[in-house]
Amino acid sequence: MAAPELQALACQYRTGKTLGRGSFSVVKEAIHLDSGLLYACKIINKRFMVGREGMVRNEVEILRKLSYGHPNVVTLHDYFETKNNIYLCFNLCTGGELLERIHRRSNFSEPDAATLVKTIFGAIKYIHDNSVVHRDLKPDNLLFDTPAEDAVIQVADFGLGKIMDEQQMYLLTEICGTPGYIAPEIYRKRISHTHPTLPTVGHGPAMDIWSTGVIAYYILVGYTPFDLATTDEKRAQVVAGVYRFEPEKYWDTISETAKDFIKHCLVVDHGVRPTAETVLGHKWLTTEGGCFVSDP
Ligand code: ADP
Ligand code: MG
Asked: For ligand 1, which residues put their CB under 6 angstroms from it?
């Protein structure tokens, strides 16, 4: 009879306003009644998870592995279940999603963009160093801890994440992610049904590098390099790595180093795409602030 105890745990919190919604969850502000501390509580209705119970277990396992280890990754503070729901309590990010911030500002200055992208890649390196692939990096899953301009960005939503042991490292074959951010190797698998000459390949941490390259482009100019639609034509563009630094009016003030950085991340062949560590060594992220626009 564990249920009454679990119910008691749920009673330690009172939920408030809704912060966001995902496919299977609603995230609400929650106050811990004893301490008065505020959290973000992801509430997952068990009814929606029938047959998908492993997904939440997987998310919790990853969060346990990564929590408290890096300032740019969300922290899971508490986890419990009631008869109907599963609750995941995180540190509260009051600054909203990167998506909203891009839309509010339309784009970031180049030095600000570089600083932000460097921070995100620092978190990705930590995640990959811990044998986890996020698999759904996009601006909706990157949150700011406060509304301040210099707020700390945090990687959230490990719902599609995967823990990999050494053998598995490059052998994932599931199709997952969000159109527009999905790496070519993932579509290549799907497209290979209709184009049997294309190899079916596995994928791993490199897919996070691709998605973050897309995010870097988005932060710089306020729109994505690949269409978010899911038509075969759009997918083919991702598979072939066809994108442009256009319209020119958005790109003419952006340095060649920044463009080179995007190209560095958006390498179609995931076998030679750089790792997070290599990306962090790129000139765009290592140059001192202030000299981005005046490339030699
Ligand atoms: P899903 O897996 O369903 O997409 P997420 O974990 O991405 O769920 O959460 C959905 C949304 O809830 C996020 O995009 C964000 O707007 C909000 N959210 C999630 N975690 C937090 C948090 N720790 N603080 C504030 N808002 C959050
Ligand atoms: Mg999400």
From this structure: 19-20, 22-25, 27, 40, 42, 74, 90-93, 97, 140-141, 143, 156-157, 159
ipTM of the complex, rounded to two decimals? 0.98
According to DSSP, the residues that pair with 25 across neighbouring strands are: 44
| pLDDT tens sequence for the chain (296 residues) | 444 455 556 679 999 999 999 878 999 999 999 999 999 999 999 998 888 888 899 999 999 999 999 999 999 999 999 899 999 999 999 999 999 999 998 779 999 999 999 999 999 999 999 999 999 999 999 999 999 999 999 999 999 999 987 555 555 556 678 889 999 988 886 544 444 444 444 578 999 999 999 999 999 999 999 988 778 888 899 999 999 999 999 999 999 999 999 999 999 999 999 999 999 999 999 986 444 544 44
CA 144 – CA 96 distance, rounded (Å): 6
Ligand 1: residue of 154, 157, 158, 176 to mutate (most ligand atoms within 8 A of CB) is: 157
- The reported pTM is 0.90
Strand pairing category for 38-45 and 25-32: antiparallel
Distance from the alpha carbon of residue 244 to the mean position of ligand 1, in angstroms: 31
